[in-house]
Amino acid sequence: MTSSPHSATPVGGPLRRALAGVRWYAKQLSGESKWDEHLARCERDGVPPMTRREFERHRDHQREHGTQARCC
């Protein structure tokens, strides 16, 4: 009986998972995941998304002028 190539564990599976984890972590740190969430939310709600530039400006404005508990 021969095994099909699809039934074997792919070589590099653990490496691929590790690289995917690093990629996820980098997206979280850089804020790239926020853009992905914005696009998904707009698609779900059926509204046109902001451009990337508008989105980044909005995020910057929220960070600078948003109400947050600050120490000073």
Largest sheet: none
The gross shape turns out to be flat
The average pLDDT value, as a whole number, equals 83
How much of the polypeptide forms β-strand, as a percent range?
under 5%
Fraction in helix: 55-70%
Alpha carbon gap, first and last residue: 72 Å
* CA radius of gyration: 20 Å
- Low-confidence segments, given as residue ranges, are none
Number of helices: 3
Broad structural category: mainly alpha
| Assembly level | single chain
Number of strand segments:
0
Helix and strand run: HHH
InterPro entries: Sel_put
Organism: Nocardioides scoriae
Pfam family, one: Sel_put
Protein name: YbdD/YjiX family protein
What layout of secondary structure does this protein have?
Blueprint: H1 13-30, H2 32-45, H3 52-65
Summed up, what is this model?
Residues 50-72 are annotated as: Disordered. By secondary structure, the chain is mainly alpha-helical. Helices cover 64% and strands 0% of the residues.
What do you see in this structure?
The protein has 72 residues and is mainly alpha-helical. It has a domain at 19-63. Helix content is 64%, strand content 0%. The protein is flat, with a radius of gyration of 20 Å. The model has no long low-confidence stretch (mean pLDDT 83). Pfam families: Sel_put. InterPro entries: Sel_put.
